[in-house]
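Materials and Methods. Structural model of MerR family transcriptional regulator. The 108-residue sequence of MerR family transcriptional regulator from Actinomycetospora atypica was retrieved and submitted for structure prediction as follows.
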Amino acid sequence: MTRESEAVTRRFDDEHYPAYSMGRAAEMIGATPGFLRSLDEAGLLDPQRSPGGHRRYSRHQLRLAARVRELLDQGTALDAACRIVTLEDQLDEARRTIADQRGDQQGG
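The predicted structure was written out as tokens:
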């Protein structure tokens, strides 16, 4: 595999790679571009910008946005939904870190 094809493969596997335009991202989670902008304004999402200034979202960000939408549909206020999703994401990351450390200790 060439170095270039390896880089492309890594981007496909990278859940944080900003691969989706705002329109496509909104379509994927069944929301509007305005909804995504509101999550940017609330501080939940910080999408990268293309050279032309357009927002680009990652799969990870889309999962967070979809979870907020789910909570909103259940009647949770936007600020509370964003806080819940942030805490859930932090907990998931902590669990992954612990699992990685346990794996390193068992393997070494």
